[in-house]
């Protein structure tokens, strides 16, 4: 990002959603959602379609009135404030750039509706277009821009009036993979530079992991789990989170022996060692463990790790830096394994016999639902 | 498809082609021919366009009435189209069927119905009189007001349809975006929604204007002979003053104006496609 823009988006605010519920008839789109977004944070609402993430964003923006609950900006109740009076910058899905206005006019729009004097508006528009590196394209129409350029115009338009909050609805979903990765860097850099509070909605886990300070995972209109990306990835609370954020193998075992900081569980008479406590336990006394594919070590000889298992490769893929293996095991069925190609120490081949091993703190006990 | 079959389909079209040629193209050419050959060969009939003040008044009358009709029908139609594009689906179906229904009502019946309502002893005036809102009946027919009411009423549904279809193509996210960026309702409308529906307005206005130019029955009945428009003047020249050369000149002029209008309309519809309608 080039150019010095001290004036842009210096203020930042916190946002609290308190027990938000939105019902349409008997159906509820969101149910009892409470989220706290700290000053200057980048928070991502992540969930599959129909999880209520867009409803939450539209409620924050003011386009949907919650059935019950409260929205607080700092300590101010804005639950019933009209959208045009909230002073939030929003990047819409598909950007919604006004097709009859040039880049410059689009970015000018929020200043124009606020009645800003033309000379000052001209300066601010030029400054923000410089910030998003679009200075050379000011008189183009949106239809004459590439997807990435349109995205930047939408960002500039949402930022130019120094909004109290930035709302991003699937900001990168319309772009191709390569451009998406580039803009993830740019968006985080922009956020850091402005210090403003960003709330983003996405169904793309990679986008959520790479850009956010905090992630809120939503499922069927409720908050499933929230926390920092690494907390959610390393300590998923439920099977859904373990599966939605990254990939997981799931192991169900019967708890056989409990010590203070570890326990043993059995799967068909084979015993395994696991760190931590066997909670949450299912009503039948079994536990469900999520085991990330990259936390399993694989070799052509038995390992000396406390937990080991043998199987044979049914399929594999090579991704340059990593191998992706599908291993059929008698005990656990199919297990996915991800291993760095440089350290694999062996060349995978179909039907080859392999030994899998993992340390006691690799899996995480999760709730089944 | 075999060649014989193709030939059969061409022959099957023949009666229609002959019909159109005999009863439409030939008389049309005859009209054009008469306008330059009756009473003598030359353009003297067309000279009236320049040196006949009465004819100029008729044309100005016609253009003014058509322009006002267009203004009224498009403005009112825009509101109807806006509501139609934004109500719930059930109400929309009802509104569309009401609009289509009006096309089944004969223009003659509508004109006479308006006379019954608007004349000095009519429903409207007696209601207003008995309510004490007016002291004397207001003249609403046999003048330009009557013509405008009747024509705008007829043109309203015709104006609604192109604007409605254009509005349907405008994504609601633009309006959301405008409001989210801080625009008040009137700013959103005048700076975002209205420009985005401009193509529909142009198409509707041209359609209404072109159709109004050839209107005959409604101005004749509701104008009561006081508001002479071009179509009525053509009839008088044919029927009563029997100046065929003059009448065919008027008809040819109207035809040329209409053709130019249609050419412009075709361009307007292309513009609409560019806008993504």
Structure description:
The complex is a heterodimer of chains A (about 375) and B (about 280). Chain A has about 375 residues and is an alpha+beta fold. Chain A is built from 8 helices and 20 strands. Chain A has helices at about 55-60, 105-115, 120-130, 145-160, 175-195, 205-210, 230-235, 240-245, and strands at about 15-25, 25-35, 40-45, 70-75, 75, 90, 165-170, 200, 215-220, 220-225, 250-260, 260-265, 270-275, 285-290, 295-300, 305-320, 320-330, 335-340, 355-360, 365. In chain A, the strands form 4 sheets. Chain A has a 6-stranded mixed sheet with strand order 6-7-8-3-9-10, with helices on both faces. In chain A, β7 (about 165-170), α5 (about 175-195) and β8 (about 200) form a beta-alpha-beta unit. In chain A, α2 (about 105-115) crosses α3 (about 120-130) and α3 (about 120-130) crosses α4. Chain B has 2 domains: about 1-35, no CATH class; about 45-275, MetI-like (MetI-like fold, Orthogonal Bundle). Chain B is built from 13 helices and no strands. Chain B has helices spanning about 5-35, 45-50, 55-85, 90-100, 105-120, 125-130, 145-170, 170-180, 185-195, 200-215, 215-225, 230-240, 245-275. The radius of gyration of chain B is 23 Å and the shape is globular. The two termini of chain B are about 35 Å apart. Residues about 270-275 of chain B have low confidence and may be disordered. Classes of the chains: A alpha+beta (about 375), B mainly alpha (about 280). At the A-B interface, β6 and α2 of A face α8 and α9 of B.
Largest sheet of chain B: none
As an assembly, this protein is heterodimer
Basic shape of chain B: globular
Ends apart, CA distance between termini of chain A: 44 Å
Helical content band of chain B: over 70%
Quick one: which chains have the greatest interface? A-B, 27 and 20 residues
Give the C-level CATH assignment of the largest domain in chain B: Mainly Alpha
Q: In the CATH hierarchy, what is the architecture of the largest domain in chain B at level 2? A: Orthogonal Bundle
The parts of chain A where pLDDT drops under 50 for at least 5 residues are 1-10
Count every helix of chain B, treating DSSP H or I runs of 4 or more residues as helices.
13
Could you state the order of secondary-structure elements of chain B as H and E?
HHHHHHHHHHHHH
- Percent strand of chain A equals 25-35%
Q: How many domain units of chain B? A: 2
Q: Whole-number average pLDDT of chain B?
A: 88
CATH topology of the largest domain in chain B: MetI-like fold
What would you call the shape of chain A? Answer: elongated
Average pLDDT reading of chain A:
88
CATH superfamily label of the largest domain in chain B = MetI-like
Strand segment tally of chain A: 20
Radius of gyration of chain B: 23 Å
What class would the helix/strand composition of chain A place it in? alpha+beta
